[in-house]
Write a structure and sequence with these properties.
The chain has helices at 3-9, 11-23, 31-45, 112-131, 153-165, 211-223, 261-273, 298-312, 328-333, 359-375; strands at 51-55, 63-68, 80-85, 101-103, 106-108, 140-145, 168-171, 181-185, 187-196, 200-201, 231-239, 245-246, 249-258, 282-291, 320-323, 339-340, 347-348, 356-358. It is α+β, with helices and mostly antiparallel strands. The protein folds into two domains: 3-185 and 293-375, Zn peptidases (Aminopeptidase); 189-290, 2-Layer Sandwich (Alpha-Beta Plaits), CATH 3.30.70. Strand 1 (51-55) and strand 2 form a beta hairpin. Helix 1 (3-9) packs across helix 10 (359-375) and helix 2 crosses helix 4 (112-131). The radius of gyration is 24 Å and the shape is elongated.
Length: 376
């Protein structure tokens, strides 16, 4: 079957469905808004006769697991796990100044690319398999996260548990510009550095211990850390009370991004060696948040090669790329399961006012996803 032609014929339905989801704004912090958007997705999936499990949440939008199978399935057969998220970075009301619209094969709107188009691709692929009576080789699990943009311990726990039971994981985050998959992702470590000194009058600074100066000393030490590909960003800083007082307290939040687990070990080891420059000052470092790196494992390389062959039957060429940001695919990769990330459409402007996706890529990636669900 020519899936490209098939989804091209359903382009209007896909665009309409994406418009509905984009206009149902769903910032991570607004549980009611996220749940309303999720309800629209579940309404579509209810038509498939799939088993839908709601995982209620208090702080974030509810999580959902959709279990789909067609025909007899062996209990021993591991399922395919699709990872999606319905939350966005855009506050309610953004749609007024960033309306959904189509121009020159580009679809614009808050959250259209990241990643409501991926959600629509999953819906369309499952609806197509169901309506045409096609039989996937495995059960299909579709996980809908409500807090991917900020990360949430409960959601991460669910993803890890599901990934452990899966044969392969398909993450529908947007592709890299140009269409490459995200087969490697940097890990992210956010740390807080706190410095304690002793206050004094600015006219007699020698009687005090300047916590801000101590903090700067620690920052300069951190900047000397040499790891290939490491990025370090001093994102937030605070300290002191008045210009004429030697500051007693100071703190900073630092974002470190790295490619491998070995890099993480080196970073943590380095942080343990940090000591106050002044013997009378005190330094404390703590981890605020952590996202693991997604490495291009042998198992994922094998899955990528097989996917490339399937894509070539559609006339598509896939490349393996790298991303500096993390995703739910990063979480899943930690259990050793093969992961394909960036299977959503290509576009530009993620988290920016010109966020948009390319309509031809939207069609192509939905066709590819359908074939993967049938053949993997």
């Amino acid at each position: 079957m020519d899936y490209l032609r098939y989804f091209k014929s359903r382009q209007g339905e896909m665009v309409s469905q994406l418009k509905t989801l984009v206009q149902l704004e769903s910032p991570t912090s607004d549980k009611k808004a996220v749940d309303n958007c999720s309800a629209a997705v579940i309404s579509e999936l209810n038509q498939l006769g799939a088993k839908i499990k709601k995982i209620p949440q208090k702080e974030i939008g509810d999580l959902f697991l959709v279990e789909y199978s067609a025909g007899p399935m062996k209990d021993s057969e591991k399922p395919l796990l699709i990872l999606t998220h319905i939350d966005t970075v855009w506050p309610v009301g953004t749609i007024e100044r960033m309306p959904f619209y189509l121009i020159a094969d580009r679809l614009y709107g808050p959250g259209a690319l990241d990643m409501k188009a991926g959600v629509v691709s999953a819906i369309m692929a499952l609806k197509t398999i169901n309506s045409l009576g096609l039989e996937p080789k495995r059960k299909i699990w579709l996980f809908i996260n409500s807090a991917e943009e900020t990360g949430h311990e409960g959601a991460h726990r669910e993803i890890s548990l599901l990934a452990k039971k899966a044969a392969n994981v398909l993450c529908l985050e947007p592709a890299l510009p140009g269409g490459a998959l995200k087969m490697e992702r940097k890990g992210r470590l956010v740390i807080k550095i706190e410095a304690s000194g002793r206050s004094a009058h600015a006219s007699t600074p020698e009687k005090g211990i300047n916590a801000i100066e101590e903090l700067i000393d620690q920052w300069l030490k951190l900047k000397k850390l040499k790891i290939n590909g490491l990025t370090i960003n001093l994102g937030l800083i605070g300290g002191g009370e008045k210009a004429n007082v030697v500051p007693e307290k100071a703190w900073a939040m630092v974002d470190l991004r790295f490619w491998t687990g070995r890099d993480l070990t080196r970073i943590k080891s380095f942080l343990r060696t940090l000591k106050a420059t002044s013997r009378l000052a005190k330094i404390k470092t703590s981890i605020v948040s952590f996202t693991p790196p997604m490495e291009f494992s042998p198992a994922s390389r094998k899955l990528f090669a097989r996917t490339s062959t399937i894509a070539s039957s559609l006339g598509l060429h896939l490349e393996a790329g790298r991303s500096g940001g993390g995703s739910d695919g990063s979480i899943a990769s930690q259990v050793g399961v093969p992961v394909l990330d960036g299977l959503g459409p290509a576009g530009e402007g993620i988290h920016a006012l010109d966020e948009h996706l390319f309509l031809p890529s939207f069609i192509e990636r939905t066709a590819l996803l359908t074939m993967l669900l049938l053949e993997l």
